[in-house]
Design brief:
Blueprint lengths: L2 H9 L16 H4 L8 E2 L19 E7 L2 H12 L4 H14 L6 E4 L4 H7 L3 H13 L7 E3 L10 H8 L3 E3 L9 E9 L3 H12 L4 E9 L13
Parallel strand pairs: 2-7, 3-6, 6-7
Antiparallel strand pairs: 1-2, 4-5
Helix pairs in contact: 3-4, 4-6, 7-8
Length: 229
C-alpha cells in the first residue's frame, strides 16, 4: 500500500465491503466466510478434467475466487478505479489461499496496458501476483511485456481475440522451458487476454500454464463464464 493510502486508512478507515464494520476493506470474520472454489478445466469447465483438454487450450487449470458481482465486484472496483491498494493485499490473501496447495509454480501476471498503468499508478495484476508469491513463499518472475495499447473493456470476444493476438512480448525466456507457470489476472471476461498470454508462455517453453483470477465476469450474452460446477 502506498504511504498516502496508509494515511487515508488511518484517518478514515475503510468499511468492510461485506458486513459494513469499520476498520478494513474486508474484516477477518468476513474473510473466513469467503468460500474456497474448486479449480476447473479451462477448456471444458469440468472440475476433474485436467488432462484430456490440455491440447485444446494453452491453459490447463482455472482458479477463481468468485463471480464478478456483489463483494467481488465491489473490491475489484476499489482496486482498479479508486486507488485503494489495500484491496490488492486482501484479494491476494484470498487468491493465495486458493492455490497454496499447488506444487510451487513460478508466478507471473498478465500485464495491463501502459496507459492504464500510468493512469492508476500501478498494474493491479502485478500487485496481486507479487503479493500472492510473497504470501505463499513462491517465486515471482515477470515474463511478459504488453505491446498492444488497445483497451478491451466492452469489446466482444471476437474483437478481444483479434486485439489480443501478438499482444505480449516475452522476457526472461531462459527461465521458461519445462516449468509450471501460474498466470495471475484480476478478472476473466472472455478469456482472450489470458489465452494470448498463456500462448506466448507456452510458445517459449512453459510446460504448463494455469490461470488464477479473482473474479469471473459475464459475457455479452449474460452467461456466466464458465458454467461452473
Amino acid at each position: 500500500m502506498l504511504n498516502l493510502d496508509k494515511l487515508f486508512s488511518f484517518f478514515a478507515p475503510h468499511d468492510c465491503l461485506i458486513c459494513g464494520n469499520e476498520g478494513s476493506i474486508l474484516c477477518k470474520k468476513c474473510m473466513n466466510t469467503v468460500e474456497i472454489k474448486r479449480p476447473v478445466c479451462y477448456e471444458c469447465k469440468a472440475v476433474h478434467c485436467f488432462s484430456a483438454c490440455s491440447r485444446k487450450s494453452p491453459i490447463n487449470r482455472l482458479y477463481y475466487i468468485g463471480l464478478y458481482e456483489d463483494f467481488y465486484k465491489k473490491i475489484l472496483l476499489q482496486l482498479k478505479y479508486s486507488s485503494v491498494q489495500e484491496a490488492a493485499v486482501v484479494m491476494a490473501l484470498l487468491m493465495a489461499r486458493q492455490v497454496d496447495i499447488l506444487p510451487c509454480p513460478l508466478i507471473t501476471y498478465s500485464p495491463t496496458t501502459a496507459s492504464r498503468t500510468r493512469t492508476r499508478g500501478y498494474d493491479q495484476s502485478k500487485l496481486l501476483a507479487k503479493n500472492i508469491a510473497r504470501i505463499n513463499k513462491q517465486k515471482f518472475i515477470k515474463f511478459l511485456i504488453r505491446t498492444s495499447k488497445t483497451r478491451q473493456v466492452g469489446s466482444s470476444r471476437i474483437n478481444r481475440l483479434n486485439q489480443a493476438k501478438n499482444s505480449f512480448r516475452p522476457i526472461n525466456v531462459g527461465k521458461l522451458p519445462g516449468v509450471h507457470v501460474l498466470l495471475v489476472d484480476d478478472v476473466l471476461t472472455t478469456g482472450a487476454t489470458v489465452e494470448a498470454a498463456a500462448s506466448t508462455l507456452k510458445a517459449f517453453g512453459a510446460a504448463q500454464v494455469d490461470v488464477l483470477v479473482f473474479a469471473i465476469a459475464k459475457n455479452k450474452s449474460g452467461e456466466k463464464l464458465p458454467e461452473l460446477v
